[in-house]
Each structure stands twice: as structure tokens, then as C-alpha cells.
Amino acid sequence: MNKKEDSVVAKVPFRKGPFRGKRKEKPEFDQKVIDIARVTRVVKGGKRFSFRTVVIIGDKKNRVGVGVSKGKDMRIATEKSYADAKKNLITLNFTETTIPYQVNQKLGSAKIILKPAKKGHGIVAGGAVRAVVSLAGIKDISAKMLGSKSKLNNARATIEALKQFSIKKTREIALKEKEKPVKEAEKVKEIKKEENTKKTEKVK
């Protein structure tokens, strides 16, 4: 090539073409690995090593879950724990930034106390409880962990405490409340029938 041709090529500006690759979509849930443990199993041929992970997932819009699983390496264990947490999702049934009332929950040796707080108070909690509460979308709360130091047990106890505010729980309570007046009305009818039969027997 001549020098003139080289100068022409150099002056041509570089233009970016259209993006043809696949753009990464945001995941449906945020996740946080709160515990990693190395597990050994003794077999006939020797020892087999694997990893156990505890994962908390949530969309910060009143949905949260906890999962635990084992795998040959960290990636496999985390993926399996994520899938397990998806199966155990709960949906909270309140719109405020804090829980409606105080809850004391005991699960095994783990004891959890959750207290509502004023707007702007923030999350006063630590460890697994903080991870569960923040991924659930609760912004103002005070929590205390008593008893067990196991992150898995504390996370599960927190989930059990939050189940009191879940949609499934409130529906069950609503159905029970509807059944109560129906049962009471049936009892009144039975009492009246018995009184009528007694009166007819006296007349005879």
C-alpha cells in the first residue's frame, strides 16, 4: 500500500456495530450465602468430600425463602440450595415497612424475637436474621437471637416467625373465623330441635 492509502485508512473513524450478544437479565430473586460447611463421608474406598451451603433468597417485595443442599463443589451446592429455597418461598401479607406485632418463635434450640419499629428506625439485627429480614423487604425491625448459634436454625426460625404474616396463614385464619358462626348456628338449631321434641313428648 502507498503512504496516501495508509493515511486514508487511519483517518476512518471506528464505529461500533449493533450489540448482537445476549444481554444478562436480572435474576428474579436476590440471594445471599450465609453458611458454608465442608462435609466428609467415610465410605469403603476412603473419604468423600463435599460442600453444604445455606442460601437465603428474596425479591425484597415480601417474598423470602431458605434453602440448604450439598454438592461436590461450591457452585453445584449453591445452585441446589437456590432451587431448594425457591420451593420453600413464603409471601408476607402486609404493606408497611415493619411487622404488625411482636413475635417470639422457638424452633429446636433456636429462639427468635422480632419486634416492630418506627419508620426510619432501620434493621437492628445480626447474622441470619438480618439476611432473611432484609431480603424479605422489611426495612424497620428489631430482632434478637437467643439459644442456638447455628445460622441455619436461626434462619429457619425467622422464616417460621414470618409465616404468621403470610397469605396462606391469614387465609386459614379467615376460613376458621367463617366456620365459627356456622357451627354455632348449627348448635342452636340442634338445641331448638331437642326442645321441640321434648314438648311434643309431654303433650302426648
Task: Explain how this protein is built.
By secondary structure, this protein is an alpha+beta fold. It has a domain of 139 residues: Ribosomal Protein S5, domain 2 (2-Layer Sandwich), CATH 3.30.230. The protein has five helices and eight strands, in the order H-E-E-E-H-E-E-E-E-H-E-H-H. Helix 3 links the parallel strand 7 and strand 8. Helix 3 runs parallel beside helix 4. The longest helix is centred in the last third of the chain and has 37 residues.
Question: Short description, anyone?
Answer:
The protein is built from 5 helices and 8 strands, in the order αβββαββββαβαα. It has helices at 3-11, 74-87, 127-136, 151-162, 167-203; strands spanning 30-43, 46-58, 63-71, 90-91, 103-107, 110-116, 123-124, 141-147.
**Low-pLDDT runs:** none
CATH structural class of the domain at 30-168: Alpha Beta
The radius of gyration is 30 Å
Strand tally: 8
The main β sheet shows up as: 4 strands, antiparallel
> What is the overall shape?
elongated
Number of helices: 5
The amount of helix comes to 40-55%
CATH-derived architecture of the domain at 30-168? 2-Layer Sandwich
Order of helices and strands: HEEEHEEEEHEHH
User: What does the average pLDDT come to?
Assistant: 81
- Percent strand equals 25-35%
List the topology elements.
Layout: H1 3-11, E1 30-43, E2 46-58, E3 63-71, H2 74-87, E4 90-91, E5 103-107, E6 110-116, E7 123-124, H3 127-136, E8 141-147, H4 151-162, H5 167-203
Parallel strand pairs: 7-8
Antiparallel strand pairs: 1-2, 2-3, 3-4, 5-6, 6-8
Helix pairs in contact: 3-4
